[in-house]
Amino acid sequence: MSADPESAPEAEPLPGSPEPSGEGGRPRVTCRMCGRPLRDRQARLWGLGVECREKLAVRTAPAPGRREVEQEALPGL
């Protein structure tokens, strides 16, 4: 039983899903802080624009420094 793609019914979007915009059919994603539309991949992944990510970087804790771990060798190796 093969389905003919031309006779298949058109898929309907799920209730509550955002409407796709004209840009490749992707839904419009806006910044969670300022509401401006996000354009690049990194911004869409974070959900924050470049300027808003820079604002938050000032308020985040610094990453701890790296140091060597002192560990005894496993017996038999």
From TrEMBL:
Pfam families the record matches: DUF6011 (PF19474)
Region Disordered, residue ranges: 1-29
Bias kind Low complexity: ranges: 1-14
Protein name, entry field: Uncharacterized protein
